[in-house]
DNA sequence: TCAAAAGTGTTACTCTTACACCCATGT
DNA sequence: ACATGGGTGTAAGAGTAACACTTTTGA
């Protein structure tokens, strides 16, 4: 198990699937940013943002850095997704550690960079490498995780109404939820703290809630790192 | 995002947490094989089996290979656990893609290799690198996964009694389960097919069951790769 | 016939789901 | 006043957990 440094090295890269929630007239949908490749392989095609891992940079730091470079934002949630390293997935043997992230910004901020565009996460074009596959897996993980953890709040500001929170769940899960039952479940979980303020809108004002920071509950296990 | 091949390369390794079930008088417990390191760093300490990834070898293949070299066995279950790549975890920057596996063998076969020993998974000595942490995470994942998938059968032969299956669950979860309720749950899931044979032992014979291969149910999502 | 595991029955309790209904506000 | 979303009540059904009970074998 000594490292024999003869053959050409394996490239280690990090890519990140970054989700944001785009609110529209009657519903909301998931979007993610893609970068147009300017060189081979797959020149001209859209790909996940990412980059090579610097020798003195942690994997998660690389994900945060490329995320900031692409969107100008800091993630409200960031987690490792999977390490993809099959021999044929890229010329010259590259192992990609893929992360997935949530960002809070709803409207496209100063994110208008060249060669970066946001796409509907459920209707993507043909991407470079195995990136379609990776996005599918990230979507599955997001939908799964929303069921047993509090990540939905990664899309929301500090204070929000129950209807806004429910809208996030509905966008992720792709189906409507009963407002009455949703309220009871989320109130019963103890993860929300009601504030004294209300969001006044077109009809009866709705109470604003914020997160209970103390409750790290059910975030599913010890962090691996 | 071009690969600048100036600095020394990042090493890419695979390690594997291999679980087996050791049956004893009244209960069963989880064990895993460790390898005694013969060089620095951490010479003399116990570590997870693993090795460098060959340039033409898939990550999962590397896990299978090192698993076979260590135990002489083929895994009945093999899944990626996590990619550990923090800067300080090993001298010289190494990214370890860690897998976890189940093997069927109950008794120690011809596994008696030099510098390889099996340890109680819940009472390990101080291991090399961050391997204690990795094992903890693998144990958490195993316990978690047994709740919603069929991996428990990775420890059992083709045909088995419900008591044997329950014993596996009890060893993994670390607590007793009600035989009556366990039977109903597992029978109701439709994953088991009863055979016409019975295991005759010290008391009333117990029916043998086998797996329903058709039901890939609830193995939780699309395979990432 | 007795101990012990195999297997069945029953009940209480929790959680989910569906949906009826009242409340409070802007227009 | 009324439409609309905020918020409460309630009851049926599914799933869980605890435990009493019957069955079948080897010793």
From TrEMBL, chains A, B:
Originating species: Microbacterium gawkjiense
- Superkingdom as given in the UniProt entry: Bacteria
What this protein is called in its record is NUDIX domain-containing protein
Q: Which InterPro entries match?
A: NUDIX_hydrolase-like_dom_sf, NUDIX_hydrolase_dom, WH-like_DNA-bd_sf, WH_DNA-bd_sf, WHD_NrtR
Q: Which Gene3D superfamilies match?
A: Nucleoside Triphosphate Pyrophosphohydrolase (3.90.79.10), Winged helix-like DNA-binding domain superfamily/Winged helix DNA-binding domain (1.10.10.10)
What positions does the domain Nudix hydrolase occupy? Answer: 9-143
């Amino acid at each position: 198990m000594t490292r024999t440094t003869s053959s050409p090295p394996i490239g280690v890269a990090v890519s990140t699937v970054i989700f944001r929630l785009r609110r529209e007239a009657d519903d909301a949908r998931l979007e993610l940013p893609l970068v147009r490749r300017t060189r081979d392989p797959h020149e001209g095609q859209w790909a996940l943002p990412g980059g090579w891992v610097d020798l003195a940079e942690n994997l998660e730091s690389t994900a945060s850095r490329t995320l900031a470079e692409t969107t100008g934002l800091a993630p409200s949630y960031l987690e490792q997704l999977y390490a993809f390293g099959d021999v044929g997935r890229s010329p010259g043997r590259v192992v990609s550690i893929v992360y997935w992230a949530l960002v809070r910004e709803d409207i496209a901020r100063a994110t208008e960079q060249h060669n970066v565009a946001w796409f509907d996460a459920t209707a993507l074009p043909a991407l470079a490498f195995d990136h379609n596959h990776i996005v599918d897996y990230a979507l599955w993980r997001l939908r799964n995780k929303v069921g047993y953890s509090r990540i939905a709040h990664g899309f929301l500001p500090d204070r929000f109404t129950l209807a806004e929170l429910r809208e996030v769940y509905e966008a992720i899960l792709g189906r409507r939820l009963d407002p009455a039952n949703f309220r009871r479940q989320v109130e019963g979980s103890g993860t929300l703290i009601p504030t004294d303020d209300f969001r006044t809108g077109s009809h009866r004002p709705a109470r604003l809630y914020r997160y209970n920071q103390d409750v790290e509950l059910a975030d599913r296990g010890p962090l691996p790192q």
